[in-house]
Amino acid sequence: MTQQFDLNNFEGLCRLDSTGMIAALEGLSAQCNQAVCSILKDVELPNIEAISNIVVTGLGGSAIGGDLLRVYTAGRISVPVTVNRDYVLPEFVGPDTLVFAVSYSGNTEETLSAYEEARSRGASVMAITTGGKLGEMASRDGVPLVKVPSGCAPRAATGYLFIPTLGILQRLGMLPDLNAEITGMISYIKELHKTIGPESPREDNVSKQIAHKLYKKIPVIWGTTGTTEVVAQRWKGQINENAKAPAYWNVFPELNHNEIVGFEYPLEILNKIHVIILRDERDHPRVQKRIEITKGIIKDVVDGFTEVWASGDGDLARLFSLIYTGDYASLYLAALYGIDPGPVKVINYLKWELAKE
Ligand code: PA5
What we know:
This protein is α/β, with parallel strands linked by helices and about 350 residues long. It has two domains: about 20-175, Glucose-6-phosphate isomerase like protein, domain 1 (Rossmann fold, 3-Layer(aba) Sandwich), CATH 3.40.50.10490; about 200-335, 3-Layer(aba) Sandwich (Rossmann fold). The chain has helices at about 10-15, 20-25, 30-40, 65-75, 110-120, 130-140, 160-170, 180-195, 205-215, 230-245, 265-270, 285-300, 315-335, 345-355; strands at about 55, 80-85, 95-105, 125-130, 145, 220-225, 250, 275-280, 305-310. Strands 2-1-3-4-5 form a five-stranded parallel sheet, sandwiched between helices. Strands 7-6-8-9 form a four-stranded parallel sheet. Helix 10 links the parallel strand 6 (about 220-225) and strand 7. The mean pLDDT is about 95. Bound molecules: 5-phosphoarabinonic acid (PA5). 5-phosphoarabinonic acid binds near residues 104, 105 and 344. The site of 5-phosphoarabinonic acid has 16 residues, from loops.
């Protein structure tokens, strides 16, 4: 029997990680800082008089920043924010729409197609990318371009891809000055890194403990609509892409109206499920009550459940506290499986096969 990887073995963790995913995650606070201080400096703003809706179009690691924007701005902005993960855009997109076309590589075909469609509908478009075809198209079309540094995986570039959208909306006068909130979040994740980063021992490290709980189990991540929903989705994606393992997510209160009924059969599969419940003390009191009742329903059926609470001051810090904890947990889970978290061969294979036509 092979011995389980020791998560306290820092050198071993780094050896498995050929593309520097750990270093990129360690650099999240610096990345957000760079996004605030320099990336947006010379960016032109679109010339749009009245914005009735905002669409972020992108896929995978380039789309999650859109969900962060949607959730974070829901109570702060008076127009709807929609995330589009498709070749085509919703019918409502038109001259009063601000479209952020986000692709870290700049070569994702769905995003390129949506970009063209946004242009043909007369929407105001901004491109956020390291370059690629999207960068070329934006330069060709005179579309404002937010050029972000290359060199990491899209899912490790959340600071670069998300923070500029906040900055742009702030500059357009659609959001208040978020400087204090963003710098508060940056300091908070720096602090958090000390306890969940790779050099913090398992005994004190919540992310390492979570990875052990998820090892050889089926992770099911539950968040709450309007707050931790985006985190649940992020955890799922990070476990898939970093640990190369299945994971599923859902949200309260909706899951109380369907998914929860499915915890009776088959027991041999249910026994393998480990549920992560993402909690925030700011969630609606009735949702908190639902979570308590739900824990009682699943407790004797599943392998177990773990509650992970948001921490920090300010909504942004709270969201990122959970994202950071899950991102690290997914890297540690990859190490427990003895695999390199960076490469996503299957995604590349799909893109390569599609590019043949
Ligand atoms: O994390 C990943 O590598 C993927 O989810 C990509 O983000 C996704 O395939 C889209 O590519 P890009 O972010 O370059 O547009």
